[in-house]
Input
Amino acid sequence: MIRIDAIWLATTPMDMRTGTDTALARVVAVFGAAHPHTAYLFANKRANRMKVLVHDGIWLAARRLHQGKFVWPLGSAAQHTSLSRVQLDALVLGLPWQRMGEAGIITMV
Output
């Protein structure tokens, strides 16, 4: 399996036609560098598609929601934010990840 030690989410949208090399260049532009065993998440403008780039030999995965959209902090003042593994799991399912605490405990309704 792919080892992920850190998870970062970009708040600015990305074109989902982007390939591996362009996504890697975007990671370096937004986050300053691509660190090993780190996942970088991007969404499109409508937040119904997501791409995840993992720097572990460079893996690029895509996820699409057929209904609804991902809970994404679009238009945030910060260009990126850090997530925990529990928050990543919630985000991928389309759940409100900001409300998830450690061990899957919901901290806010």
